[in-house]
Model the fold of this input.
Amino acid sequence: MNRFFILFLISLSSFVSNASVFPTPKMDVILSVSGAIHHTNMNRAAQFDREMLEQFPQTQVVTLTPWTDTLHRYDGVLLTDLLDQLQAEGHRVVAKGLNGYQAELNMEVLGKYPVIIAIKTDGEYMRVRDKGPLWLILPLSDYPELDTTLFHEDMVWQLHELVVY
Done:
């Protein structure tokens, strides 16, 4: 074979493997991330089942929310960790819930705080009727400057999609 052709095949295989870093989901997809990301696994998006999200380092946030009466512990993936792994290049993220609600997040602002995509509340997986299966949680109790209506609107429950731009 021609040396140039072999080099071309090697560089092409390297490009293809870099484009798809994550395996495809084996269970139901609970989160899809699209837009200005470099790593995908399906249809130009990165799709995750719960098991895949649990493979990321997990972070805990204990906080009050406007929708709960007491402190709760939320376990999940740091939003910045997920976006870093996808090599996201945007400055804004649209977070969409199953109920049609969506919020536009400013990543420069939220990147200063440990914002998580919560999978569990008090050690239990969240159900759809309990604001799950995913809830974007801001640490309101630790950072009083976040405890405003503006940031409350960013806490999308029943989260199922993120679009980076």
The chain has a mean pLDDT of 89. The CA atoms of residues 103 and 153 lie 7 Å apart. The radius of gyration is 18 Å.
